[in-house]
């Protein structure tokens, strides 16, 4: 028999059946159909879920502190999750051409993997499943699959730019969310924290769906969802009430599901070290901060004594055992993630948006090992000019230097690639606008003293007896002589820089 959740706003009461986590796992298509039907009917709206959640927290005297703890934990894991997915996505944009493959796939294929991403993301944690009500017009199979650019643009937005660790979450726009915010401007502290917590959960769900869709499409295994759980603990009265509300909203699914299915979901949840971010493995038991646990029932876990000491000195000392407010909870989450991951994406190198666009262009013409430059003769159309490399050895040498520059941000490789490109255009008597080309290079690479570095590359070239550019020093002399015959080596880059 189907169970129904009761939601009340003002004097209006409504009942609706919420599709369950178990159904997401066992019958994803039917689960998705029921969710989209429920969202379209508006029998349950974000306002209904938000009010139920807020009322549950107000029944306990110390609910604000406990709520701030939960918010801080969710924000920490969401920021951490963003950076981990960004690292994966960046690698796939560069090495596996996910952009080209996704755009080339049929809509039916994209729909298949979007559904996998949706259902698997909602099949482990109750709050992520019910959070789908907050993303009803964004996380739909049609929206993410019909136009391939939608999914790619959302995935690309996760990658931080300008070498910073993100301190906030993206604003994924959506009409249902915007309408909810306009009508639910929380003024008291409980409402503000609750609203911030649902915002984090909403963003976190979007992150997981993007990650799981990407990995499913590429035929790769999906990692477990990182759910902060309290090991070997009892629950506060507030938590019991929230769990009761969630069970009711999900149709008391735990009473219906088998013990095996319940244990399977729990096994996918993980405990995370608050210092290094490592997940607790099977048979391992992380220790928690006893002061936080005894004073606030706050679970702050560490994989080792060393991690606990390091985190205490750097961040945790100021909040250990203390009641958290909204501001402190946010600062704690940001500091924790920044400490763990300041240089965790591709060795600390975070490509600019302009460079990512360049990489995608190269992926579309993967058989041609070269580089693109902006053609200033037609800037309105953004036409790009391909630099040709005729010899196989030359192509492989250039590819190694180029790929090292694009994947690691190695300064020498960047300058070698850019110098060779400019030199080739100059000796080929290209009529392109060098000012536009160099401005584009500076925007792509964001390198200090870029023009000075190019001049240093030129000096290295002219110090070589055969005038080979630094990018081509590994090229055989025979091929270099053939390739460079007819070039005017008296030309120097001062004339275009």
From TrEMBL:
Species name: Rhodocollybia butyracea
The UniProt record lists the keyword Transmembrane helix: no
InterPro entries per the UniProt record, alphabetical: Znf_MYND (IPR002893)
Single GO MF annotation: zinc ion binding
Domain MYND-type span(s) in chain numbering: 273-320
Swiss-Prot/TrEMBL keywords: Metal-binding, Zinc, Zinc-finger
Stored SUPFAM superfamilies: HIT/MYND zinc finger-like
Residues of the signal peptide: none
Superkingdom field: Eukaryota
Pfam annotation, one family: zf-MYND
Protein name: MYND-type domain-containing protein
């Amino acid at each position: 028999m189907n169970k129904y959740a009761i939601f009340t706003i003002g004097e209006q009461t409504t009942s609706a059946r919420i599709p369950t986590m178990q159904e997401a796992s066992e019958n994803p298509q039917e689960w998705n159909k029921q969710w989209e039907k429920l969202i379209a009917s508006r029998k349950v709206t974000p306002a209904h879920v938000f009010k139920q959640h807020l009322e549950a927290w107000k029944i306990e005297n110390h609910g604000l502190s406990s709520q701030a703890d939960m918010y801080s934990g969710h924000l920490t894991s969401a920021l951490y999750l963003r950076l981990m997915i960004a690292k994966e996505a960046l690698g796939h944009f560069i090495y596996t051409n996910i952009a080209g493959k996704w755009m080339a796939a049929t809509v039916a294929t994209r729909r298949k993997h979007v559904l996998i991403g949706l259902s698997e993301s909602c099949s482990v944690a109750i709050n992520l499943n019910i959070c789908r009500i907050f993303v009803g017009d964004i996380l739909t199979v049609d929206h993410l699959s019909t136009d391939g650019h939608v999914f790619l643009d959302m995935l690309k937005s996760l990658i931080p730019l300008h070498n910073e660790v993100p301190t906030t979450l993206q604003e994924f726009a959506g009409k249902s969310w915007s309408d909810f915010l306009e009508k639910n401007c929380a003024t008291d502290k409980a409402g503000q924290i609750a609203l911030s917590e649902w915002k984090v959960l909403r963003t976190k769900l979007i992150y997981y769906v993007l990650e799981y869709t990407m990995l499913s499409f590429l035929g790769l295994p999906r990692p477990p969802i990182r759910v902060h759980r309290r090991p070997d603990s009892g629950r506060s009265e507030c938590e019991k009430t929230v769990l009761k509300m969630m069970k009711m909203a999900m149709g008391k699914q735990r009473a219906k599901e088998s013990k095996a299915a319940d244990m399977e979901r729990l096994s996918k949840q993980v405990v995370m070290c608050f210092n290094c971010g490592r997940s607790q493995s099977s048979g391992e038991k992380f220790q928690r901060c006893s002061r936080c646990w005894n004073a606030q029932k706050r679970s702050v876990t560490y994989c080792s004594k060393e991690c606990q000491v390091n985190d205490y000195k750097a961040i945790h000392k100021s909040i250990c055992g203390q009641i958290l407010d909204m501001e402190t909870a946010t600062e704690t989450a940001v500091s924790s993630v920044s400490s763990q991951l300041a240089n965790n994406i591709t060795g600390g190198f975070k490509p600019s948006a302009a460079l990512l666009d360049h990489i995608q262009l190269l992926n579309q013409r993967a058989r041609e090992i070269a580089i693109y430059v902006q053609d200033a003769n037609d800037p309105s159309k953004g036409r790009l000019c391909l630099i040709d490399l005729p010899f196989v050895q030359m192509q492989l040498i250039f590819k190694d230097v180029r790929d090292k520059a694009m994947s690691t941000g190695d300064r020498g490789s960047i300058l070698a690639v850019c110098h060779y490109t400019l030199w080739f255009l100059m000796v080929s008597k290209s009529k392109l606008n060098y000012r536009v080309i160099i401005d584009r290079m500076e925007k792509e690479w964001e390198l200090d003293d870029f023009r000075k570095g190019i001049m240093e590359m030129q000096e290295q070239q002219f110090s070589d007896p055969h005038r080979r550019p630094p990018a081509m020093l590994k090229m055989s002399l025979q091929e270099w002589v053939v390739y460079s015959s007819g070039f005017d080596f008296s030309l120097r880059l001062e004339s275009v820089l």
